[in-house]
Amino acid sequence: MDDSKVVGGKVKKAGKHVGKAARIHLKAKLERCQQSARERRAKKKPRYRYLEELVSREELEMSKHWCMAHDKVYKALKNILISTRY
């Protein structure tokens, strides 16, 4: 079935005209979408900062363990060299 109307000698199809209410609805929808995007970006920043700090702490702990292991190896080699010297 054809939903066209004849107005003033011109044929108009239903659904082609966007009324004021529909434009307001679209503006509201766009504003909600933009606000939601702003909120997501605001949440993302602290999350990434937290993850970066977490990784930094883990890297620092790894470095500490490497340094402690290096010190143990150094002391062991020093003791071996001292004991073989005499």
UniProtKB/TrEMBL annotation:
Keywords: Activator, DNA-binding, Nucleus, Transcription, Transcription regulation. GO terms for biological process: regulation of DNA-templated transcription. It is found in: Nucleus. One of its GO terms (cellular component) is nucleus. GO terms for molecular function: DNA binding. InterPro entries: CREBL2/REPTOR-BP. Its main location: nucleus. It comes from the Eukaryota. PANTHER family: CAMP-RESPONSIVE ELEMENT-BINDING PROTEIN-LIKE 2 (PTHR21051:SF4). Belongs to the bZIP family. ATF subfamily. This is Uncharacterized protein. The lineage of its organism: Eukaryota, Metazoa, Chordata, Craniata, Vertebrata.
